[in-house]
Each structure stands twice: as C-alpha cells, then as structure tokens.
Amino acid sequence: MNTMNEKEFDKLLKEALQLMDEDRFQEALEVYEKVITMNPKCLDAWVNKGVALRKMGKPREAEEAYDKAIALNPEDADAWYNKAIANRFLQGHEKAVEAYSKAGALNPEYVAAFLNLGNVTMRLFRYKVSEEAYDKAIAADPKDAEAWCNKGLLLLRGGRTQEALEILDKGIALNPEYADAWINKGLALKRLGREKESLEAYDKAIAVEPKPEMGWVWNNKGSLLVKLGRYQEALESFDEAIAFNPEDADAWYNRSVALQRLGREKESLEAHAKAVGLNPEIGSREELMPRERTVGPARRDEYIKGMGIK
Q1: CATH number belonging to the domain at 219-294, selected among 1.10.510.10, 1.20.1300.10, 2.30.30.180, 1.25.40.10
Q2: pLDDT beneath 50, residues of the chain
Q3: Architecture, CATH, for domain 1-107
Q4: What does the domain layout of the chain look like in residue ranges?
Q5: 290 cis-preceded (ω within 30 degrees of 0)
Q6: How many other C-beta atoms are found inside a 10 Å radius of the C-beta of residue 87?
Q7: For labelling alongside 116, which of 87, 135, 171, 217 has CA 20 to 30 A away?
Q8: Any bridge partners for residue 308, and if so which?
Q9: Count of CB atoms within 10 A of residue 34's CB?
Q10: Is residue 219 within 8 Å of 291, Cβ to Cβ?
C-alpha cells in the first residue's frame, strides 16, 4: 500500500469509527467494506463490520464477519467476545458459552466476557458455572458494581437470600444509583421478613431511576404492601406499574388481588379478565397470590475496535 493509499485507508477507518459512534451503522458498514477491499487482512475492519451488522439486526452475517476476524487471528479476544453476542441473538446459547469462555481464556481481565458468560449460564440454570464467571469478573475488577449485583441476583434466584443481600450491598456501595440492585435488594429483604427495609429499598429504586422499566419495582412494592395488609397503597402501586406498561399481565393480576382484598369484587374480576387476556396461562381466581420479579442481569454490548464497549 503506497503512502497515498495509506492516508486514504486511515481516513476511512476514522470515518467509520465516527459513524459507529453516531449509530449510523449502514453507512459505517459501507465504509468498512471499502477498507476490507483495500486490505482484506484488516482485523479491526472485520470485527467492526460484525458489530455494524449485528446492530442492523443481521446476527448471522455478523457471525460470519467475526469468523473472518478469528481466521486472521484466533487469539483475538474481542472477536470471540463479539461472536458470542451474535450467537446469543441467534439463540445459540451453547455457542455463546463457548465463545465467551474463549474470550475470557485469552484475556483473564475481560470483565465484560465473564459478566456475559455468567448471564448466559444463569439463563441455562448452570448456577455454579455462572457464579464462577461472576467471581472472575469481580477478580478482574473489584469495583465493577454490575458484576457484584449480577452475582447477587444469581444467589437470589438460587435461594441463597442472605448471601445475595450481602453481595447486592457491595454492588450498591459501589454505585448507589443502581436502581436494579435496589429492586433485587428489596426482594431479598422481603424474603428475609424485613418488610420495612424492603419498602425502603423499593422506594430508593423509584427515586434514583423513575423510568418505564420501573414498572417492575412498583409491581414488587405492591406485592409487599398486599402482604402487609395495606391494600389501598398496593392498588396504587399496581396502577403505577400498569401506567408504565398497560400490557403487563402480572400487574393486572396483582391489581385484581388488591381489589379483591378491598372488597371491590366487580373491579377485581375485570382486572383478572384483563390479565388472562394478556396471558392465558396466568393463575385462576382461586389461586390469587401476589406475583413478584427480580430484575436483571445487566449485560455488556459489543466491543468496537478503536472505541471499546459502547
């Protein structure tokens, strides 16, 4: 490549990165195609081409781009990491586990790889493997709040509630504005019978991040209020959850619980009918019990060569 071509090549790489930063993925893809035409062995171009394709909803083509990068350098941890994300979108969870594990083996400091590995193995109910992955993420960066809180979520789902609470508190100490951690802490406290502290945790989550996703915390808070016999306040919480997401079957179901306890039978039946309409698998009125959910886990996005994880 002569000097003029080298200058054009570098210019194209910078242009493509700028387009990626602006989420203009189709345009970035076109530039990376030019780069690859000039130099088919440009590893960064193949990796970032894969990112652009996945962002455009083309995970299969993205995987092919990552395979090209891996063929050029089988030791490139970022290519393996990004390939795992493409695999996940293709529902290839076993392949994702393999690729995340490969990225972590190549780079023991790859927090994002271990974090996402923990997530996918938790989804596969491989809790021991998931815990090991989160521990590796924490060892690589003890100040990563998401790694601590994801581990806390895992322990909570595994029934290790007291341990989960202790781990969640470590994550919250690192990031007191982490709403999802406060939600999961609230559920842990509820399971431990510490209702007042649980309500405080849910209110903290709402205070730090009052956005649509917080329908989850209103749902959990309402469930706790039902348990405490504070049915009117519970009804108000479920109404908040429904305001965030009118298609939330669990919130409608829970609303029917609160209304029944308040003696408002007709409205309770209507709310239950709405819940069944949204989810035919939901419980019958004879099985009315408040429902609750955990939130998370947090996951990391693709690695863009020259930019990092965006």
Answers
A1: 1.25.40.10
A2: none
A3: Alpha Horseshoe (1.25)
A4: 1-107, 219-294
A5: no
A6: 23
A7: 217
A8: 304
A9: 14
A10: yes
pLDDT at 310: 67
Tell me the backbone φ, ψ of residue 304, rounded to 5 degrees: -100, 120
Q: What is this structure's pTM?
A: 0.88
Model pLDDT, residue 175: 97
Which H/E stretch holds residue 304?
A: strand 303-304
* Cα distance between residue 305 and residue 307, in whole Å: 5
Hey, what are 211's tokens?
């956005």
**Distance (Å, rounded) from C-alpha 117 to C-alpha 254?**
34
Tokens representing residue 208 in the block: 């730090």
Q: How far is CA 135 from CA 100, 107, 169, in A?
A: 15, 15, 16
End-to-end CA distance of the chain: 31
Contact (CB, 8 A) for 66 and 46: yes
